[in-house]
Amino acid sequence: MTPDTARALARYNRWMNDKLYASALLLTDEERKRDRGAFFGSIHNVLNHILLADRIWLGRIAGYVPEPGFVAEGIKSHSQLLAESFDELTQERRKTDDAIDRWVESLSAESLAGTVRILRKGESHEYPLWWVVTHLFNHQTHHRGQATTLLFQAGHDPGVTDLFVMLNDERLRAG
User: Fold this and answer.
1) Looking at the 3D structure of the chain, how many domains does it have?
2) Where are the extended beta strands (E) located within the chain?
3) 33 and 42 Cβ atoms separated by less than 8 Å
4) For labeling, which of 57, 79, 135, 155 is most exposed (least CB within 10 Å)?
5) For the chain, what is the radius of gyration of the CA atoms?
């Protein structure tokens, strides 16, 4: 993992979130919240889970708390709702993507080679930072795949989801 890799993954994170939220916006609130038999039930709940996990991991790895309540304090479940309304969920997603972007800009080869101490279930664990950064982005991708499938099943194709395509498009735009 390099700082450039982390930055590319952060751009991919935002690109995909923008696509998924635009597709989800085409559904009614009832359709977004309909239990579709997925691990977190509904499209809304899957998107909420990604947001919740991103905030937990940002708090763990960056200590990044731009405003009170940003990091999901008091979380008792990985399915706990941070936002009931889709508008609020969208706003909170954008804030979190902004925070991820600012955080990855601060990364260096040295910081990625370091470790991070994480408290889990009352025990302190130390991990290489690059493992945790990789997990953050991999976790997002995993659950966005679920959201993409649910959206497609609901009649809305978010389009191409490949990191390779996004990177190639960036390269072509840069000339």
Assistant:
1) 1
2) 115-120, 123-128
3) yes
4) 155
5) 16
